[in-house]
Structures are given as structure tokens and as C-alpha cells.
Amino acid sequence: MSDDDGDTNRKRPNILVTGTPGTGKTVLASLIAEQTGLKHINVGDLIKQHKCYDGHDSTLDTHFLDEDKLLDIMENVFQECEDENIGIVADYHSCELFPERWFDLILVLRANTEILYDRLTERGYSEKKRSENLEAEIMQVVLDEAREAYDVEIVHEVMSNTVEDMESNVERCRIWLNQWTANNS
């Protein structure tokens, strides 16, 4: 087998775009999918669509995730895409809950706190929720989680402050995808 973990014979890779809320995950994943032919999966939308939650935290105005339900649904989606020879680019603000075998590249988006503050304010985040997310970005919580959950070779920290950053990240993914395809054909 030509892939690193020997777990699959996939012909198309899977990418996870992760990062603190407001770093541009959904925008980047959409652009990558659009330019590479990978299927975009917005995990947050999947959670809402299939009601993958166990209650609500009114303080942070967020639902408690039912991880087992989500992972069962995603396992089916990944299998269908693999059967159809379609790669996936998924986006979600957390990464450690996903099996390592699912992804070939993890992009952890980072943003300057001033830019992130403005983005979260525009979304109408409460002061508490905004502060919690800014602290998570400062403490690089998502990056550390990614480095602990996946082989550090596939985890890449990329900036996501400007349109130019996004364009550069899409181009880097396109080049990486071409190389992955060449190495795994």
C-alpha cells in the first residue's frame, strides 16, 4: 500500500480544516472543494441536520454534542465517498474526536486576535463566548489538540487573516493534493 497508515486504499485524500470559531474554516473548506473536486462536509451543518446533540448550555448558547451519533453518521458519509472514489474536505472547530485514519492532511487555521475579535463580534457572539474563543486562540488549543490527536507530519498551522492568506492556503492544498495523488496512484 502506498499510503502512510496502511489502513486504506483510497484514491482520493481527505482533509480536515479546523481552528477556533471565526478563523475561516468553512470558507476555506468550500474554496478547496470548489477548486479540487473534493466533497465539502461542514460538520456543524451535519450536527444540526441530524440533531447530534444531548441538551443545551444556555450560558454559552451552544448544544452538547452527541459524539457517537455524529461519528456514526460521518462513518457512513466517509464510506460512501470512498466507494464513489471521492475525497472529502471537512471543517469543524474541534478535531480530536475524529479517527486518525479518516484524514491525510489537517489544516489548523490561526488568526490574529484583533481580527478574530471583530469576526466573532460580527457573528453576534456574547462577551463570554467571544472571550472563551479568543483565549482558546491565544493558547493555541486547537493546534495542540491536532498535534496530540494526529501524526504531526500531517498537521499544518496556517494563517487565515486575509483574503491573500485564504488564496495561498487553497493553492498549497491544490499542490499538496496533486502530490498526494501522484504518490498514491
UniProtKB/TrEMBL annotation:
PANTHER family xrefs: ADENYLATE KINASE ISOENZYME 6, POS9-ACTIVATING FACTOR FAP7-RELATED
Ranges for region LID: 122-132
UniProt-annotated stretches for the region NMPbind: 42-65
Organism: Cyclotella cryptica
Subunit: Interacts with small ribosomal subunit protein uS11. Not a structural component of 43S pre-ribosomes, but transiently interacts with them by binding to uS11.
EC nos: 2.7.4.3
Chain positions recorded as ATP binding sites: G22, G24, K25, T26, V27, R123
Protein name (Swiss-Prot/TrEMBL): Adenylate kinase isoenzyme 6 homolog
Alphabetical GO biological process terms: ribosomal small subunit biogenesis; rRNA processing
Gene3D superfamilies found in the cross-reference section: P-loop containing nucleotide triphosphate hydrolases
